[in-house]
Automatic annotation (TrEMBL):
<keyword id="KW-0805">Transcription regulation</keyword>
<dbReference type="GO" id="GO:0032993">
    <property type="term" value="C:protein-DNA complex"/>
</dbReference>
<feature type="domain" description="HTH lysR-type">
    <location>
        <begin position="6"/>
        <end position="63"/>
    </location>
</feature>
<dbReference type="InterPro" id="IPR036388">
    <property type="entry name" value="WH-like_DNA-bd_sf"/>
</dbReference>
<comment type="similarity">
    <text>Belongs to the LysR transcriptional regulatory family.</text>
</comment>
<dbReference type="GO" id="GO:0003700">
    <property type="term" value="F:DNA-binding transcription factor activity"/>
</dbReference>
<dbReference type="GO" id="GO:0003677">
    <property type="term" value="F:DNA binding"/>
</dbReference>
<dbReference type="InterPro" id="IPR000847">
    <property type="entry name" value="LysR_HTH_N"/>
</dbReference>
<protein>
    <submittedName>
        <fullName>LysR family transcriptional regulator</fullName>
    </submittedName>
</protein>
<dbReference type="Pfam" id="PF00126">
    <property type="entry name" value="HTH_1"/>
</dbReference>
<dbReference type="InterPro" id="IPR005119">
    <property type="entry name" value="LysR_subst-bd"/>
</dbReference>
<keyword id="KW-0804">Transcription</keyword>
<dbReference type="InterPro" id="IPR036390">
    <property type="entry name" value="WH_DNA-bd_sf"/>
</dbReference>
<keyword id="KW-0238">DNA-binding</keyword>
<dbReference type="Pfam" id="PF03466">
    <property type="entry name" value="LysR_substrate"/>
</dbReference>
């Protein structure tokens, strides 16, 4: 075995550069100076006797071997983190730092309600939040950037452990006095699909809305998109169309200050499942199950 082995810090610098594609941004993400990060990667290359990164004035390009080393470095760093988590899990439950990814259609509506109680009842827990779309959040989970993810199913999460938090019904939002608005529930077949407003690609709620309507042609006809649920509500309030909102957003008061009216959908499957997921065989599984209990308590 080699006398000299890469340090975790060197591997962290290499992974940060691979993710950022830029020395300055990688240094900022690593909370070190650019010269420190660059020196650490050069030391790693010297130690291994290979070139991992091709440098030019404008471009950072990883060699083929460099990409392979980054893939292995991610696994090593994840194992190192799980070793530390194993020790931490042996102490007081649900304490210390816990990094949770949260999708944008959950974070502003559920987290503000939960955080005050968690801070009060779990003062030793440091919950670090990272808001990302579902796909990015799952990638962060697999690469060890977060410990768990709060998202909505159905969504392809890969091989993970899961704990269901709740069901979240979907509602149709109408402008005030819209003649299409029914008195009670909404039959998806009667919707004006050409005027349906959806979130941009990357948000799983977009797919949940299309599934709830059970109309594949919506992908072609729903041309108007928004970057957030708040944007969609404002578009509906200005009579630009209809949209679909989750019940948790309504409970959080997303319609306050507008004249938008929401009606539940008749379809019994018009809902999403709020779920906490984490990596299989994580030593902090007990913590995640406790956190799921806390999230259910709301």
């Amino acid at each position: 075995m080699s006398t000299y082995l890469p340090t975790l810090k060197q591997l962290q610098y290499l992974v940060a550069l691979h993710e950022a594609g830029h020395f300055g941004r990688a240094a900022d993400a690593s909370f070190v100076s650019q010269s420190t990060l660059s020196a650490g990667i050069r030391e790693l290359e010297s130690l291994l006797g290979v070139t991992l990164v091709e440098r030019s004035r404008r471009v950072v390009r990883f060699t083929r071997l460099g990409d392979q080393v980054v893939e292995k470095a991610n696994k090593i760093l994840r194992e190192a983190e799980e070793l530390a988590e194993l020790v931490q899990a042996a102490g007081k439950p649900l304490t210390g730092e816990l990094r949770m990814g949260v999708i944008p259609t959950i974070a502003p509506f559920m987290i503000p309600r939960i955080l005050p109680r968690l801070r009060r009842e779990r003062p030793d827990l440091q919950l670090m939040l990272r808001e990302e779309t579902s796909q990015d959040a799952i990638e962060s989970l697999q690469h060890g950037r977060v410990d768990c993810v709060l998202l909505a199913l159905p969504f392809d999460t890969g091989e993970v452990e899961k704990a269901k938090i709740s069901d979240d019904r979907l509602f149709v939002a109408f402008p005030k006095d819209d003649p299409r608005m029914p008195p009670a529930t909404v039959d998806p077949d009667l919707l004006d699909y050409g005027s349906l407003l959806l979130l941009e690609d990357g948000h799983c709620l977009r797919n949940h809305a299309l599934t709830a309507c059970n109309r594949s042609e919506l992908r072609a006809s729903a041309g108007m998109i928004g970057t957030s649920l708040h944007t969609l509500v404002q578009m509906v309030d200005n009579d630009l169309g209809l949209t679909i909102l989750p019940e948790m957003a309504l409970d959080a008061g997303i319609l306050s200050g507008t004249e938008v009216v929401a009606r539940p959908m008749e379809n019994g499957t018009a809902k999403r499942e709020i779920t906490l997921v984490w990596r299989k065989n994580s030593p902090r599984e007990a913590d995640f199950k406790l956190l799921a209990d806390e999230l259910r308590a709301g």
